[in-house]
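## retry 2 of 3
previous attempt timed out at serialization; input unchanged, resubmitting
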Amino acid sequence: MSSPVFSSLSRPDIAAVPAAGSNPADTDAWHALKQAATDLQPLQNKNGSIESEHHAAAAELIGTITAAVDALAPAFAHDAEYLRLVVADFERWVAAGLETEPDFLDSLIAFAPQQYRTDGLSHLVVFPMYTQNGSSNRLVEAVLIEVIWPEFVAELEAGEYSNGLFVPIRFLDFTPGYDTNSAVLFPETVAVRETPAFTWGAIFADREAARFRKVLAAAADITSLQLPAEAAELLQDQLLTEETFIMWDLIHDRTHMRGDLPFDPFMIKQRMPYFLYSLEELRCDLTAFREAVKIQRNEDAPEETRRHARLVQYAVIFDRIFRFAITGSRVRNYDGLGGQLLFAWMHQNHVLHWTDGKLSIDWEETADVVVRLGAQIEELYWRSIDRPKTAHWLAAYDLVAGTLTPNPASVWAQGPQALPLDGPPRGLTDQVLDDEFPLSMFYEALSKKMAPVIESTAGITGTSGDLPG
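## retry succeeded, writing output
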């Protein structure tokens, strides 16, 4: 039997949301919800549960959260069933004693933002969840979001680039788990009793765009890179950059699990070498790049779409070589490795130059050079179904090592004769160094100057006051 403190929630009176047209982030109800969720987080364990000594305080905070959800609900009529069930999930968790892991399966299934991809439509999202590239603990987080759905993206998605799961969004406000580098809202991060079929994935285009603009502005200044006039527009226009990233993400996201793939391209979940996941993420980005080139060269495509296709190419290159390559630790940094590979490939194919202390790029030749790298990865994948697993791993390593210099201490770099090929595959993974492909001298120097800028982008949004332009 549960303690009397759980027989009912203390539900404070919270003023209802003002009439339509108001910003929910400016309401007393949202501020109460955000504060209560923030105060609840230190009481939670890593798995989201709460120890008995904190139950009374937690129940009171949850009461504030549910009352605020009820007050905010009229502003989100399209999410009425979800908001009703999220209150029920909170109340059931309290009634169960809070020492159990939270279970929000019912409300998660009811939340379906992919059904309402309408530009400017907002959602209130409250779940116990971890935030990728943010908190690894399943804490109660709350976020107010707004859908971004430009007409040209809707037309792309309705045509050749269908992706019914993709939901591009921007921040209105958030709790501490999103005051981080996290730029995604994924259902698989939510605490549930069993794994459902996932029907949507949301990406914060405003954070991606703001981060990109700040990093590119600094990198161009440090390297004396002269940006093409069209690329320079991205530094001045947040909305234009958001739309560019949405087009990139739309194509990238649909590329996973499509094409001539190994049995499961998400190798990192199976303790496979991290450079394989580097190639999977880079493959998806270079597919977006290739398709952007195709759209740009299609004279029958709408000019607005062709313009964004040109901008996607700049975004993929600059984000990969300036931010991805030097963000995060050097411990199995798969995105970092992909950025390093693209930079070195462009340099070794003579379209990127570092001369007299200045960086320059030959843009007329760049598209075809970058598409060739994507083609090499596609060829690797196509041949993989005819190869044993370890042979595929070795071929993938050779592809990367053909452009990037391995760590001098690498066992893998010594070739198959140095590896434990007679044992289980995980033995090969264990031989991959945390930093199998160290930063080049160029990146070592750039990282020292760029690190403070990259660190400053944690928690950034499209309305941050220190953005260029």
